Amino acid sequence: MQQTAMNETIIDHIKKDHQKTMEHIAELEKRVQGRPSSDNPVFAPMKKELLGHMAAEEKLLYPPLEKEMKQKIQDAIKEHNEVRQHLEHLSAGTMPEDEWARHLQMMKQGIQHHVQEEESEILPAARKMLGEDKIRELGPQFERMEKENK
Ligand SMILES: [Fe+2]
Ligand SMILES: [Fe+2]
Taking the model in full, what pTM does it have? Predict the structure, then answer.
C-alpha cells in the first residue's frame, strides 16, 4: 500500500510523455532547415519513445475503457496508426527536405489533436473508471511496457 501511494500514476506519466514529444518535435522543427532530416539525432529517440508510448497505451490504458467509450478508443487507435505511418514515412529518408518538413507538420497536427482528446476525455474517464489505487498501480507497469515496446 505504501509503495502504491508513492507511484506516479499512469495519467501523470502519459502527460509527461506528451510534453516530451512536443518538445522533441519543436527541436526537430528548429533543426530541420539546412540539415538532413531522419538522421537528425532527435528523430530516432523520438520515434522509439512514441512507438513505446502508443503500444503501452493500447495494452494498458485503452482496453479497460473500450466498453464505455468504444468510438473514442477506436478513433484513438486509428490516430495512433496514422502516427505510425508518418513515422515510417519520415524514417525512410528518401524525400527532399521540404517534403520531410511538411510531413513532420502533418504528424505534429495529428499528434496535437490526439493528445488534446486523450487529455481532455480519455484520461479523465480512466481516472473515474479505474480509481486512484489502480491508476497508481498502472504507472510503473506503463513505464515497463513502454520500454519493452520501443
Ligand atoms: Fe498518449
Ligand atoms: Fe495515444
Answer: 0.91
Q: Residue 34 C-alpha to ligand 1 middle, in angstroms?
A: 31
Q: For the chain, what are the domain ranges?
A: 2-148
Contact 146, 20 (CB under 8 A): no
139 neighbors 8 (Cβ within 8 angstroms): yes
What are the pLDDT digits (tens) for 60-97?
Answer: 999 999 999 999 999 999 999 999 999 999 988 677 88
Report CA(22)–ligand 1 centroid distance (Å).
11
Q: Cell numbers 529518408 label which residue?
A: 93
Are 57 and 13 a contacting pair, CB within 8 Å?
no
Using a CB cutoff of 5 Å, list residues around ligand 2, an ion. 57
Q: 45 CA to middle of ligand 1, Å?
A: 16
